[in-house]
Input
Amino acid sequence: MNKYDGTPLELTDFSVETDVFRRDVVAGLRNRAKSLPSKYLYDKRGSELFDAICEARDYYPTRTEIGIMKRSAPEMARAIGPGAVVIEYGSGSSLKTPLLLEPLEKPAAYVPVDISREHLVEAAERISERFQDLPIMPVCADFTRPFDLPEALNAKAPRTAFFPGSTIGNFTPSQAQTLLRNMYDETNGGSVLLGVDLKKDVDVLERAYDDSEGVTAEFNINLLEHINRELDADFDLDAFEHRAVFNEELSRVEMHLVSKKRQVVTIGDETFSFEPDETIHTENSHKYTPEKFAELAKPAGWRVAKIWTDEKNYFSIQLLVADK
Ligand SMILES: C[S@@+](CC[C@H](N)C(=O)[O-])C[C@H]1O[C@@H](n2cnc3c(N)ncnc32)[C@H](O)[C@@H]1O
Output
């Protein structure tokens, strides 16, 4: 039992090791079209900047998803049922979590999973202060790789995966399918409640990922600072700029870092050359129609049981149940 008493929560720690970070970065920058995995956007500063993005005027997903939850969380909680273990993937600041935990009937435990360790621990502590009788079991892990859930978890309790923030959109459809399949296994075919961003006007989309306050640009550039700090690299942060474009064919907003000039960057003892205007592809954010998303979820074992949206049909929260 957590019974909040001010002592630190027990963290299950599978933090990404520096060698793995280095290997991923070097492999991405050796590609003909340079790319970096978006998960590395989230060091402590990156997580703070993501929180600031959520507050940006042009970034509609967070306030839209919160609006849907405020309206319909009691219905979502009833659909999930009593006694559930809630495993939140990419929990970040656990901003939306209380909206689900409040109306849930006797949740058995809350397991926030995130790659950004300090931010995860701080968020888990805030949740544990607020839900003092709920066992809180934070796990620092890269959820794209297999990881063990805490041993203390009741094996018999029904499990639901909570995956808000349209983080599913950061994966290609085939990666998303693998992730949903893993969630099927990790929840024993329980349920998933997840935020899926919907297709809409290109202007609205591009503005959301290149906000007028410049926060998303700072978030993207911070990835280079993360690499400089942890991997002994010398990216000149002023020599790259942020770009966000909608790729119609693949129905996704792509974020890139664009080299402003010809330059050479060193990471440890490796060097990488950049041409003027050459880009590093740093993040995707796929946008779905409800039909396309249902098609994607089915081979992973899931059926869409219910969809909640907003008045503009900008965003959806979907409940997936085992497709038996
Ligand atoms: C788009 S943010 C969403 C945050 C929060 N769920 C929300 O709705 O506001 C993505 C979150 O997932 C985490 N994340 C991204 N890739 C991850 C990975 N491969 N493994 C674990 N956490 C990851 C990030 O650290 C970040 O907190």
Observations:
- The longest helix spans residues 60-80.
